């Protein structure tokens, strides 16, 4: 694997897989894709309901933890990130949500020119293949992209429609396809599933690219630092096992390592806030103060209810029906194991006067809780979860290297609920859950609320419960964000690092701000659109240009 390539890409996750598929299409451009993890050929990766099994699997996962978060009762929060081919798209819950138009229009307004809704919508459409079914069961395909977006409502648990009726009871509109929503809507989640199996970014994008002779994939490889010749990135220093070596990028080094590891790698390479680098004994190659800063994430609260009608607990919480479900899945690739747990939900306005939704809601037809170590603990009795999160939090945290050791986990400071808007949003999330639970369609099938306990009723006590239990829903972004200049951002609007040449960051860390929903879809969209920019710049020689600091 040593040698020279046109592009060297770090990270075979959602962004990296989508990016290299586009870069290698001509059959001539030489691309090396480097992944810290190993094979994704694991049974429980492919089973849609099996994602909980791998949620804390150290073989597939970086298993990060945050620093104690003051706003969340000083808790250290578990942060799983994929360390496997496919990255987090191999261990996530498979929900596909583009985000809302105002998310991307706000990106453009913040300095990411060319990333408004009118610009990004075609990129979404190019990568999508919608596998749909009509009310009469007729199946049809819409779109010619590589990524399947499946309508699985006919396989979802019979409890799930009760949530949809409850939402309608509350006045929220129901839609047929919430994955492409542009406003307030509830419905069945669509998922990156094909033929009853997870379709990760590796399955959709990397698999066809690996058939081309101009792509090389290196796995179980630790990238220790970026190499430079002055202001130009020239390659990477890599370690595989006990062997270390350099690889050279003739055109560009492209980081697709995610919102945690892309800023970490920049900082390990001497690119970042000078004080952070000097504190761990590193020399400053390029002082760029916003590297690692600007971290955003979605924080959600779940309320757990005991149901008086069957839910998935009746199947998965008991051995005989669980065996039958497994046999059905093995024989047909259908049934409870063939559908992700996030079955219904959508975007809601907590105030009808709002111009755009400010809440995302989930209903899972199963009661469980996540232990501090990431294990999923399932209730044996029937139950369900209602979960809500603020779509666009305004708090910003940071990622910083802990030491100069590439193997050391970085410092993750989410800085949750740091703004009054986010504190108010937490209260509104609790209120929305209460409204839904009180709607006739759910009240009729609910015995009691289990968590928080039924006696926890007043607003302050419920907010105390939020601080004690709320957690990430695994959507970190914006730690290398695009923007106008180096005092407020890391990248220009073409994902190029300010003040350097031959170096880009193409993943969720490039988001100027977190999007309103699940971040996997916009991450792949960003990579799809960035690939076009990279090839355009190669054609004009613009990849050689050192980006001058904006005044």
Automatic annotation (TrEMBL):
Gene3D superfamilies associated with the record: FAD/NAD(P)-binding domain (3.50.50.60), Glucose Oxidase, domain 3 (3.30.560.10)
Molecular function via GO: flavin adenine dinucleotide binding; oxidoreductase activity, acting on CH-OH group of donors
InterPro entries per record: FAD/NAD-bd_sf, GMC_OxRdtase, GMC_OxRdtase_N, GMC_OxRtase_C
Keywords: FAD, Flavoprotein
Domain of life of the native organism: Bacteria
Lineage, top ranks: Bacteria, Pseudomonadati, Pseudomonadota, Alphaproteobacteria, Rhodobacterales
Requisite cofactors: FAD
Ranges where the Glucose-methanol-choline oxidoreductase N-terminal domain occurs: 82-105, 258-272
Organism: Aliishimia ponticola
Family recorded in the similarity comment: Belongs to the GMC oxidoreductase family.
Protein name: Choline dehydrogenase
Sequence positions that bind FAD: 84, 223
């Amino acid at each position: 694997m040593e040698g020279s390539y046109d592009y060297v890409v770090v990270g075979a996750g959602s962004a990296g897989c989508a990016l290299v598929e586009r870069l290698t299409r001509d059959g001539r451009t030489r691309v090396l894709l480097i992944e810290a993890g190993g094979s994704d050929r694991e049974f429980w990766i492919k089973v849609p309901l099996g994602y909980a099994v791998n949620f804390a699997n150290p073989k597939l996962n970086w298993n990060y933890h945050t620093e104690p978060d003051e706003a969340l009762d000083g808790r250290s929060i578990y942060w799983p990130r994929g360390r496997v081919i496919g990255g987090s798209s191999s261990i996530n819950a498979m929900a596909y949500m583009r985000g809302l138009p105002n998310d991307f229009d706000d990106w453009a307004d913040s300095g990411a020119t060319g990333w408004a809704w009118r610009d990004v919508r075609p990129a979404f459409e190019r990568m999508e293949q919608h596998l749909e079914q009509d009310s009469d069961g007729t199946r049809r395909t819409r779109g010619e992209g590589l990524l399947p977006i499946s309508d699985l409502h006919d396989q979802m648990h019979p409890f799930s429609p009760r949530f949809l009726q409850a939402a309608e009871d509350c006045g929220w509109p129901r839609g047929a396809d919430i994955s492409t929503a542009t406003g307030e809507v509830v419905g069945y989640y669509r998922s990156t599933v094909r033929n009853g199996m997870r379709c990760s970014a590796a399955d959709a994008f990397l698999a066809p690219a690996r058939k081309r002779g101009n792509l090389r994939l290196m796995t179980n490889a630790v990238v220790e630092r970026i190499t430079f010749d002055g202001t130009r990135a020239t390659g990477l220093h890599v370690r595989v096992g006990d062997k270390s070596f350099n690889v050279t990028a003739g055109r560009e080094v492209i980081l697709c390592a995610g919102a945690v590891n892309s800023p970490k790698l920049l900082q390990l390479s001497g690119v970042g806030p000078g004080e952070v680098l000097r504190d761990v004994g590193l020399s400053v190659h390029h002082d760029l103060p916003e590297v690692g800063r600007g971290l955003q994430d979605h924080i959600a609260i779940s309320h757990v209810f005991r149901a008086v009608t069957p839910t998935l607990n009746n199947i998965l919480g008991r051995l005989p029906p669980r065996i039958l479900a497994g046999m059905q899945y093995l024989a047909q690739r259908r049934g409870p194991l063939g559908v992700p747990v996030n079955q219904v939900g959508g975007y809601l306005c907590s105030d009808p006067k709002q111009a755009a939704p400010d809440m995302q809601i989930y209903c899972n037809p199963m009661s469980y809780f996540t232990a501090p170590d990431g294990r999923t603990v399932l209730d044996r009795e029937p139950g369900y979860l209602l979960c809500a999160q603020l779509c666009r939090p305004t708090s910003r945290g940071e990622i910083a290297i802990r030491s100069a050791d590439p193997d050391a986990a970085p410092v993750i400071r989410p800085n949750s609920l740091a703004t009054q808007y986010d504190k108010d949003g937490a209260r509104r999330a609790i209120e929305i859950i209460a409204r839904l639970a009180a709607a006739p369609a759910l009240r009729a099938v609910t015995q009691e609320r289990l968590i928080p306990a039924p006696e926890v009723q007043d607003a302050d006590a419920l907010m105390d419960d939020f601080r004690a239990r709320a957690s990430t829903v695994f959507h970190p972004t914006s730690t290398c964000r695009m923007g106008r200049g180096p005092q407020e951002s890391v990248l220009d609007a073409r994902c190029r690092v300010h003040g350097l040449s031959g170096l880009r960051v193409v993943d969720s860390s490039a988001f100027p701000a977190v999007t309103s929903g699940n971040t996997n879809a916009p991450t792949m969209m960003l990579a799809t659109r960035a690939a076009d920019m990279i090839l355009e710049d190669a054609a004009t020689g613009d990849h050689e240009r050192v980006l001058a600091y904006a005044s």
